[in-house]
Write a structure and sequence with these properties.
homotetramer; alpha/beta; elongated; D-isomer_DH_NAD-bd (chains A, B, C, D)
Chain lengths: 292, 292, 292, 292
Amino acid sequence: MLRKKFAIIGGDMRNVYLADLLKKDYQYVEIYGFEKSGKPWALKSSPLDFVLEGSRVVVGGIPLLSDNGFLNMPLAKEKLCFSEFLEKIPEGAHLIAGRLTQQVKEQLEQKKVRYTDLLDREEMAVLNAAATAEGAVGILLQEMPITLLGSRILIVGYGRIGKNLARLLHGFGAEVWAAARQYADIAWIEAHGYKPVPIHHLARFVSDMDAIVNTVPALVITKDILEKVRNDCFLLDLASAPGGIDFKAAEAIGLKVRWALSLPGKVAPMTAGDIIRRTIYNILEEEGGVLS
Amino acid sequence: MLRKKFAIIGGDMRNVYLADLLKKDYQYVEIYGFEKSGKPWALKSSPLDFVLEGSRVVVGGIPLLSDNGFLNMPLAKEKLCFSEFLEKIPEGAHLIAGRLTQQVKEQLEQKKVRYTDLLDREEMAVLNAAATAEGAVGILLQEMPITLLGSRILIVGYGRIGKNLARLLHGFGAEVWAAARQYADIAWIEAHGYKPVPIHHLARFVSDMDAIVNTVPALVITKDILEKVRNDCFLLDLASAPGGIDFKAAEAIGLKVRWALSLPGKVAPMTAGDIIRRTIYNILEEEGGVLS
Amino acid sequence: MLRKKFAIIGGDMRNVYLADLLKKDYQYVEIYGFEKSGKPWALKSSPLDFVLEGSRVVVGGIPLLSDNGFLNMPLAKEKLCFSEFLEKIPEGAHLIAGRLTQQVKEQLEQKKVRYTDLLDREEMAVLNAAATAEGAVGILLQEMPITLLGSRILIVGYGRIGKNLARLLHGFGAEVWAAARQYADIAWIEAHGYKPVPIHHLARFVSDMDAIVNTVPALVITKDILEKVRNDCFLLDLASAPGGIDFKAAEAIGLKVRWALSLPGKVAPMTAGDIIRRTIYNILEEEGGVLS
Amino acid sequence: MLRKKFAIIGGDMRNVYLADLLKKDYQYVEIYGFEKSGKPWALKSSPLDFVLEGSRVVVGGIPLLSDNGFLNMPLAKEKLCFSEFLEKIPEGAHLIAGRLTQQVKEQLEQKKVRYTDLLDREEMAVLNAAATAEGAVGILLQEMPITLLGSRILIVGYGRIGKNLARLLHGFGAEVWAAARQYADIAWIEAHGYKPVPIHHLARFVSDMDAIVNTVPALVITKDILEKVRNDCFLLDLASAPGGIDFKAAEAIGLKVRWALSLPGKVAPMTAGDIIRRTIYNILEEEGGVLS
């Protein structure tokens, strides 16, 4: 394996762990923008020119940019604007980061910089879903006054996160209900040994639950449904914006609700960093032997 | 619910159970071709004209036809040719059966008979996979001289059957390895807590296994791979023809191999009949309220 | 069922939930000493005389007494000394509480008050162990930077808590190791599908673990053993005083340690209250029909 | 490790596998009485004198004797009477076998032969229970016309076998009910996430079951209870003689019953042999270093 230079530019704690793990693989890694990470070796960044020069793989944050057009670098002491970053990436490098906008992609193409959006990688989504499900269990353990053993929990949506969460809760001895739209998903719910709920009949089933966990990124748990929920039922939303619960209505009714986002990086940052590492290796392998 | 007439024409024990279960749902059911099923109520069939007359749903076997052009009716005393059957199906009826050929479909269209191929129904495939996995466990329990607890088993392919089987074996305390091609499937294997094997590296992993179960319907377990297998390793193929194991090579080497097909109908005919029943209901509901 | 009067005198949130649950069973319940519980119905206690008068079952805290000889009433506004309490318990009542000292027992016998120590009840210990295991999982999820999926965790001791915790961790896809002394326990560890460690060989196995959870109430994880532990291994002690980890040595080495006690009342107070309720019913049923 | 001579005299296939496994551990092993085992190396036994001479560990069958006073040697061509065997065991040897009668023990003591009854070894019972549970699952898969997924199964008795079986069935997605007498066992049933049945209320619960598995070696499933069972419920008795089901009554009612004994040796003879091997090592280790 010929060693390639990796430049890691910003991102959160996941990228700090990523740097560590790549080094353990004997990769050549330079970092930029982690002065506030608490890691001694990141206290002082080398100049950006030095970090990027000759790098074949440039890793950014997830997302790559923060709202204001600067790079997403929550652990950096100073800001870095995208145009400066773009100018310094070497031609022929491969930028790997999250949520690349159309505009960013075009600018990269002009500079002959290849790119991959991590959020398009299915294997990353699957592994992150496992971490998200663990985070969700942690929240349920914290917020519910009863044990998961013997509790009755409804999961809305049976995609990657729903499947992983159902399995964990079943392992605790919870009675797991799962709601989905498609017949095939309903069949999977049954094949896995849980109780299926057709999502358009949600209202009929919510009143008996100790907790309801939403994973669908669309308003499915409306005011009408919330009004049927028991007042000591805990509501957890794992779906990205705008979420799937009518939070305003839930608060008006006096229900305990929590909206938890980006759990992998929060509850298992080292695993989350490792997931990025492995996804990067897959990307490079598909590209044909950058690693070999 | 307005009752519709169901005519069940042939098929195996699954359709016998199907008839029973539909009757328990208070449906009007007539049957044809189950004289040898051992059920008292099926000893004598009514004439085909009577059975089909006025029926809105006609259920055939899986597959609908046997090789020689007759209807697939293994439990019938007499044969029935497709042309006679076709002539008597009422216009406007819905034929639900398995593996409909292009020719059959065209003839049905000419007669204005709607049709659905059960083998195209994802929910049926999922639920049958759960039954198949149970059947596979039954065979492993029977054929292996060791307990599943503590055994090391490799599942080749991580589709519907592979996923279900892995879960069951894990529940026994087996060390489960699963081989797949796609990165996303490899990610699922890990997320589920099993050991992943890239399918193109199969040869490296087979030598340590107590059993190998194939689920891929293409020759993946070739002579080269078989030569690396331990001589007391049990090989089970669950894939439909042509199967995924080079059976000839396996026998030449002296390996214990078994090819098991159509397990749901064999190991759990009542559940298999129930799966058909529920799939039929889904089909009718999608059609818009035949049942409601 | 003839209703008997229950008097609940002090104890923590578990007894608050206990009062609630007994009322839901239509029992006659009076409480004393929960003014600071946050429950509206407990803001003001009736006089002790009234509460105890005519009561057939008197429930105290776990333990019954705090260190200084007063009743254990953490949620009360005022203290209550045992002699006053003793004076007012009606003859023929049954006192049910935790950790009754020999002296207390003798004084109760003199007053012809029956008593049962909840800590002697096996069913309560088993059910609490399930809650403790959930609490331990919550702590591991919080403290470890990696997912439980794929982690390697050693549980020291395979009693009630060890068994429950092993099962939960296995459900997450952790690689579970468990250490025990007896051959029979080692056999159970294997039968459950985990990896067994003879406890006298602990030192050989600790170096590979991501976390070690002790459940043995005796110093088993000594300085010698701690020195072999990886420096990012998380140590959790669930054993009652004096605990099983040499905390001083662990801190000197710089290991991350946590000692968590009385988890059921903290992580699942309602379930913990329900466990007390059911144990009380069992006690009364054994006594012969107080409830019937 | 100093090698000791092992003499294996009779017993079933488990002892054949035992011989094989001991040899793989580089032990010196002689065998007697396995001519009909189908193993080439056992076709011809050496003379008994040679086999026993100088042996330090003598392993017999489980039980040691068959009903008629001969050694239990189902795979031998010829019979061997106990007195001849006794005469030839060297003084100071250790006889390890199953179900030693008081008379046998006394005769061994006179000859200064130590002995251990394998049936007194808890670790062997635990590991065999795991194998028995797998065998029971195999029978249920074979005999029931429905999948275990979604079935409702009652296990009577929550000892070693009941616990193992419950866990396996739960892994299939069965709804598991378990009946026990003690409050503590009921608590374990709940802690494990199954539905508890007080054994004296058995009659109330049997009518809804798809299968009932008895593990209690005393008549608990009486005629009265059998009369409440659904007529398509499958009954399996795993308890040693006299069993726990009133077989006569069950047959009179027309219920499908099966009594399965000695499952480990039948369904997993190699594992069963390995369990004996490991138990022997434990015995020798306790004895103080015969192996070390």
